[in-house]
């Protein structure tokens, strides 16, 4: 007595890799289309696709590579036809930022099937829609926009092809949240027990759908990242600096010229698939300076016990510095929430800004002071600066009760504008970070990726610190020198003064030179 086979069992018996007519989507495309061209990048994607569908090591794949190099033709057009030619029971879904883009692939695949009987795929006669059609064996292709979602039968193969339309959407937290909500509530819930998933996209932003999948589902995804210009450990085996062989037959030097004419922010995300710019965006890593701890001066009897730091060959006694804390507050423990960040700073006698320490955590409001207090006690900080909107929170009340002065900062401008004084100080080599701190990489990565980073709470504390130092430090000079400098204030001083006014809520006529620490 014969037993009816499930579609999965039927496929396992009849469509094993050893009986595939074409070993890969690229081999099929080459056989059917004389104009089709394979490159080293497309060969690698072919191997990854075969491993995904015929292997048992992983069932989820992400592919990142430069635009217009054939990844969508390979994955959204050729791969569904290749799969259905060997298993016409498969239920495949293609999802893109817009329904008409996804439907374009459905229309093209249907044309390929009708033009090539050798694929041996038979479509149902009543199945004519570009975005939804079925095979005689019960398989189907569904093409939808990410806002529409997937309904109906479970999905055996899910292809996500560019969930965001471009830079504007990628920079919008609303669109990034939309894509993640779709994955959590729709995309991942429609997968069958034999499902395979492919996500391919241009990495516009480190907090895009791929970025969140990488962070929140670690170990679940096989990730293939192919840059236009090779770096160390290149997946194609290229030498560092070697350009990508282009499917468009671009002239040698094409990508290198783009690198020279595009900002690092744009080139690294779109062409290198690394949305955290290696050298930084507004804050350049090459401008970062690092202080090192020196042996304490045992003869010194200050509150910090003679602690000294080395600023590039200059010894600075921390007791000679004015110390303060800037805080960027959040009030939630949710894993997707912003961080509460408290940074302890010192202003050297020469006016350098020294980051002494920082604490970061996702906290409830009642926990804020316990988060800040250790920094204040360790570094004997004089004042805590927080945004005006938080001046009545538990942190301000508890700090005041402990006898610690709390000063408000008014954020009247956008984050990028507020950061400009800080970027200028960093560029001038007047900001120092603690070498060897276990959180230093996290700090530097956030600065380098600003303003495209998923979070900017640490940057905010630096921005505020830069404004504080502009208002609270003056070089040692005679009264005659002060009067002379008053008469010839440089434009840069005006900019800093205006920035401080915007940050603290001070008047436009704030006289910075009348303030000392």
Question: What does this entry look like structurally?
Answer:
The structure is a single chain. The chain has helices spanning 7-14, 25-32, 40-54, 71-86, 99-115, 167-170, 173-187, 209-216, 254-261, 264-270, 368-379, 394-401, 415-427, 440-449, 457-472, 479-487, 491-504, and strands at residues 60-64, 91-96, 132-134, 140-145, 155-161, 191-200, 222-225, 289-294, 308-311, 314-317, 322-328, 340-347, 353-361, 383-387, 406-409, 431-434. It is α/β, with parallel strands linked by helices and 517 residues long. The chain has two domains: 7-270, 3-Layer(aba) Sandwich (Rossmann fold); 285-514, Nucleotidyltransferase, domain 5 (2-Layer Sandwich), CATH 3.30.420. It holds the Pfam family Terminase_6N. Keywords: Viral release from host cell.
